[in-house]
Specification:
It is a single-pass type II membrane protein. The protein has 315 residues and is α+β, with helices and mostly antiparallel strands. It is built from six helices and 16 strands. Helix 2 packs across helix 5.
Length: 315
């Protein structure tokens, strides 16, 4: 008898054998997609984390243009001075021997004004600015000229409020203001090797309060780079006394010296004094404030007595 050929064995219907084989082949097809999906999920989560970090850094005051921090907010500097070549800006103005900048640079100190003095000076700014304030993000108070931001304009607070000023400020306020000005003046004179008596306070010297409110006028756009000697011809030496703390009281708002490919910043700290020669060698700007409120006072000096102004007096 010839041997019978046997066909391939078939699983009985309903045995489930064929069904068990199908998932195996499906799994092989699905495996690459599972890998891709996990990779995609990881990539998306990573990108979100990076984006969140960048947004947080930005909201805290990060700025891609800053490559070096000259003074961190956590440092307490007895004095730091960086000399830079003088620009030619001073050549187009009358020179005063022994005062007009021959040595140029920028300095920072945290030991001239105490934090208590800074807090008391800030209270003067707060009292004065409580009488007005800009509709935009930047308000000023000038105790010398009386200029005060109100809405989209400026008023002379001494004329506008009259005798009410006597109930806002005190003689002690004005004396503290004068004492602080004198300390800053002496610091600048020592740093640049000139006589303090050759320096004269000049205008504008003023308090500033900056927050994140959208600008309403050009006066609110404080963040543009500029040169003080070009903007205010009388300036020879500029100083800023900071009255609030970066990242504690506000985000953004750092002071930036603009240099090609190497911007440098000063992080504000209450009581910190930053000072510099006012020419193009110290082109600078202030970062936009992202949150909170930044307080400072700008104190400017000239070598030309004709451009000098007197200290404000409480009358």
């Amino acid at each position: 008898m010839a041997p019978q050929r046997r066909g391939a064995l078939r699983a009985p219907e309903g045995s489930g054998a064929s069904e068990r084989r199908r998932p195996c082949s499906t799994k092989n097809v699905r495996a690459p997609w599972e890998v891709q999906r996990k990779w995609l999920r990881t990539t998306v989560l990573g990108a979100c984390a990076v984006l969140t970090g960048l947004l947080l850094w930005s909201s805290l005051g990060g700025d891609d243009g800053v490559t070096e921090v000259l003074a961190h907010r956590g440092e307490i500097l007895p004095g730091r001075f960086i000399e830079v070549p003088c620009s030619e800006d001073y050549d187009s103005h009358r020179r005063f021997e022994g005062c007009s900048p021959r040595k140029c640079g920028r300095g920072i100190t945290d030991t001239v004004i105490t934090r208590d003095e800074a807090q008391r000076i800030r209270s003067i700014a707060e009292k004065g600015l409580s009488l007005g304030g800009s509709d935009g993000g930047a308000s000023i108070l000038d105790l010398h000229s009386g200029a005060l931001s109100v809405g989209k304009h400026f008023v002379n607070l001494y004329r506008y409020f009259g005798d009410k000023i006597q109930t806002v400020f005190s003689e002690e306020d004005f004396q503290l203001y004068r004492d602080v000005r004198q300390k800053v003046q002496l610091t600048i004179a020592q740093a640049f090797g000139i006589s303090a008596s050759s320096l004269h306070l000049t205008k504008p010297t003023f308090f500033s309060r900056i927050n994140s409110t959208q600008a309403r006028t050009a006066h609110d756009e404080y963040w543009h780079a500029h040169v003080d000697k070009v903007t205010y011809g009388s300036f020879d030496y500029t100083s800023l006394l900071y009255l609030s703390d970066y990242l504690d009281d506000f985000g953004g708002g750092r002071f930036v010296f603009v240099e090609e490919g190497a911007n440098k910043t000063v992080e504000p700290r209450a009581g910190r004094v930053s000072f510099f020669t006012s020419g193009s060698e110290n082109l600078h700007r202030v970062e936009k404030v992202h949150w909170g409120t930044r307080y400072a006072v700008t104190i400017a000096f000239t070598c030309n007595p004709d451009h000098g102004i007197a200290d404000p007096e409480f009358t």
